[in-house]
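ok so I'm stuck.
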Amino acid sequence: MLAKLQTLRFAPRMIGSFLSASTKISREFMAPLLVVNALACLILASVHFLAILPVLEITYDREFQNILLTFFTVPVTAYIVSGLLQFYQKLLRKEEADLGLLFGGNRGYLRVLLLCLLYYSAYVILFKVAFRDIEDDWIFRIRVFLGLLLFAWLLVRLMFAPLFAVEEGTGLKDSVKGSFFLTSTHTTHSLVLTLFFVSFVLVGLVPLFVALQFDLPGFWVLILIAVLVPGSIWIIYTMSITIISYVLLYDYYRGKAYAKKKGLFIPEAEQSEATASRKGRPGTARS
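replied:
not stuck anymore, here's the structure
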């Protein structure tokens, strides 16, 4: 418990380290990153919109509509995610990264698709089911808390499985095992980084959320539409920083040279190096 509290104490410095490194890289390759992110978002939004019409024809039940919509769009989502990961990995490895990689998501596609379905199943079982019968009692609160806790834990432990599937070409079982291994001693600060960068991106969705949730007069709707444009740009740009940080974290845990050269800060690694130096031995970063 003390070690976890120490990790939280180091959280601002850790976030700053990854944010600084990923921002520097995103500025260096800003044009191609903005193009590939905008195209990925456009494809996913279009597929989601086109899937709404047949879903509405099939059922009027809202919960069933959400399930159908997810299963209609997940195949395309998994394909685009596979392509995005290939693009960013090539970019960070100083290899040739062209736009065609976005449409080359066939590498590890089936495994990424199964992982996406696994994530969604965990979300339904651990998160949505907890809110199914809303009651104002302690049993409901405990159920919601445990559901959120388990979902967050599982999400963090499986966060690197898609990268294993795409880069290493490992099977589904080995990808899951590899992700569990990498995060076995880094769960707390992996969760901190995940929460920060997801919130970082979703800030751009606030105007859209306000527009959809409240019945605003026409004047305010126009203002919100004006804000949606920079909000969309924000999402597209921060996607670059977030995915770069995600790949850098994977590289750091794997002990790869590029992330080490960036001097990224990991509390356990720095503490082990300090301990080793006091004992007169060279420090080694955990993988």
